Amino acid sequence: MHEPRLLPALLAALMLAPAWAAPRGDATSAGAAILARFDAALRGDVVALDKLMADDLDYCTFRGDCQTKAQYLGEVKSGRLKYVSIDPAVSKVKLFDDSAVVLGLASVTAIRDGRQHTIHISWAGVLAWRDDRWQMTTWTSTLLERPSK
Amino acid sequence: MKMRCTTLPAGLFLLAALMSGACLAGDKTETSLRAAELARFAANVAADSAALEKLLDANLEYSHSNGKLDSRSSFIASLTDGSLDYLGAEPAIQSLRIFGDVGVIRGLAKMRVMLDGKTSEFTLGYTDVWLWKDGRWQMTEWRSVRLPDAPPK
Q1: Separation of first and last alpha carbons in chain B
Q2: What pLDDT, on a 0 to 100 scale, did the predictor assign at position B113?
Q3: Does residue B107 belong to any structural domain of this protein?
Q4: Which of A65, A126, A134 to mutate to test the interface with B (most CBs of B within 10 A)?
Q5: For residues A123 and A139, is the Cβ–Cβ distance under 8 A?
Q6: How many domains, in total, are found in chain B?
Q7: CATH label of the domain that carries residue A70
Q8: Element spanning B135, H or E
């Protein structure tokens, strides 16, 4: 039998359902997603990187050149870019509704086209909360003359 | 507050931004974000601290191409005390995206700057992050890389 008084409550419950059913990203998980990205890059784990990076990623290096996700993953997969060591630190997370800006520093040693370089950078990553996880949509970094503490 | 005449491109940017009526208030759209970006470049050149106070987020981190980091207050102070003087800026937006309340712009900018009494011209590749707050776009992050000079033609 139809019970009209239950209808508003049912509709309210349905409207609220997505808010508690899907966990939301927080500042801690945003920082962790960026650190996981560094770890995956160091291991050359293209499968993990694929999940951590958004399909519309804009990856801009300290040299000023920018790559798509496919281009970046292609470099890692082919071995043209191989990380030897990465020492990252998250310094700040700016958290918004469905996005986060994560800031930090890193010392990176990598081999590109057979030549090894060590750089010290400050970086910023913009994450979007999609498919119940953080995905990196933007990466940009600035070369530092020496490591910052 | 230091004020002086802007270069023609900067003046045109400011005019375009004011005509759109979208740089300081309006909707959270790509159009208003683009207008805010152009207004910010113009305000830099004009050393317009009042406009910059509105266009820059209180938590701004302004990372210069040389690695120097400024806050909103230190950046505005450097413009108004003349230690950093943008003589001209010609931005070219390459991509503009909005993720919820966050906007990200990537572009190039031809800059003419007076620093420590010396004028220099160079091109920046930049990425900046904007936050939609209090009904307007506010830049919360700026990062740039000085690009190599183009070879002479």
Answers
A1: 41
A2: 94
A3: yes
A4: A126
A5: yes
A6: 1
A7: 3.10.450.50
A8: none
User: In this structure, what CATH number is given to the domain that contains residue B71?
Assistant: 3.10.450.50
For the stretch A125-135, pLDDT in tens is 999 999 999 99
Inter-chain contacts counted by CB atoms under 8 A, chains A and B = 79
Q: Which A positions 84-143 lie with beta carbon below 8 A of chain B?
A: 92, 94, 96-99, 101, 103, 122, 124, 126, 128, 137-138, 140-143
B99–A98 C-beta distance less than 8 A: yes
**ipTM given for this complex:** 0.77
Q: Which domain holds residue B65?
A: 8-146
CB-CB neighbors (< 8 A) of A25 in chain B: none
Give the domain extent around A36: 21-144
Instruction: Give the burial string for B90-108 (b: 16+ CB within 10 Å, else e).
Output: ebebeebbbbeebbbbbbb
pTM for the full model? 0.81
Residue A77 has pLDDT above 60, yes or no: yes
CB B95 within 8 A of CB B106: yes
Q: What is the mean pLDDT of chain A?
A: 87
